[in-house]
Amino acid sequence: MALALTACSGGTDRKDDRAGISDARAVDAPFSPAQLKQAIPSRLAAPAGWGVTGPFADEGRQAEDKCAGQRLPGCVGLTATVTVDLVKSDSRGDTNVHFALSAFDSLDNARVRMKGELQDHQAKQADSTPLALDVPGAEDTIAYAQSGGSGERFETARFRVGTVVVLLFARGLPPDHDLASFARLQAQRLAVAAENRNPDA
Looking at the domain assignment, is residue 200 inside a domain? Predict the structure, then answer.
């Protein structure tokens, strides 16, 4: 089955009107743990009627050891991780999206992580359906859907914004808050945090 894999590359100091993201590439510099925590969606960024659990963060050796312990691909150069869960308040937890950000000390190490993510997915993509996902500012995008045993729909997006690798895992999303909208939100917040600005300001 074909894989939905896209890459976006930009010139110098060009602005993308769809997302308000500049190609000045501030995102190519390593993120500090504080920047990473600011970048992940907060309660202020959550859509109306959605709650937030987290953030949960690790940094330094603790982040790298957890990565290695979970046998994730490309743990070298990992400097910090942070996760949150957004849950639709009236769904009894059945409508949610999990955000996970992994910051690396260089573009090369972030690219190696994405290469490992792609290889992992290719090895078990037979039970998934590729999704088209346009996320301005993101590179190396992988997106796919899977069905659960009870007929539930699960959607996953993996992409890289500079030195940060992003994972979104969603369940039961409604049409007005689809996977693409959350992916664009995350890419926008990373672009703002990379410039040492608070996305919630």
Answer: no
